[in-house]
Amino acid sequence: MLSPAAQPLRRAPKQARAQQRVSRILDAAEELFVELGYDAATTNQIASRANASIGSLYEFFPNKQALAQALAERYIERLGALIEERMVNDPSWTGEQLVDSIVTALDVFWRRHPATVPLLRGSLGAPALMSAGEQLRMALVGHIETILLERRPDVDPERALLAAEMAIDLTRTLLERIQAEPTHRRPVVLRELKIAIIGYLRTAMPPPAR
Fold it and tell me: Which CATH class is domain 10-62?
């Protein structure tokens, strides 16, 4: 289990009203990070979108980076639920069926939580988002690595980790591209992504010689 790189909350909300306020603030941050970009979005705008005072926001979050970190932790929690629901390593599935299930689940997650993309993009260069984005990325990588090692115990763990990292980074990049596609083209491009992932894994982790 990953531990957070930093504690995003000044204090944990205990009462239901405070928990709802924090949830609204995070919802607003998610929306504005997507609409305006992380750099352009301000804490004043986030507080206004959440119908909260700026003082109320700072009561829980010391800065914008803390909001990004809290969003990453929220996503990791929800990703865990999605993993339990959709990303199951069923022994009866072929490798193709497993990839189809995982990529479909991640596509659903990306569409439900569009700020995932800015967070993960931040892990590739924006210092303010590095810890939040990398935490989310490694949660995904860790799950895929576990599945690969369960399926292929003969593979060197370092090889499995690298394959998991490449598969997640490729999926992230192409899912971001798919978001810009017209609705009628999304299934076609998503199918191409699955073909690309299957082809990469077959090359990176070929079956053992008989």
Answer: mainly alpha
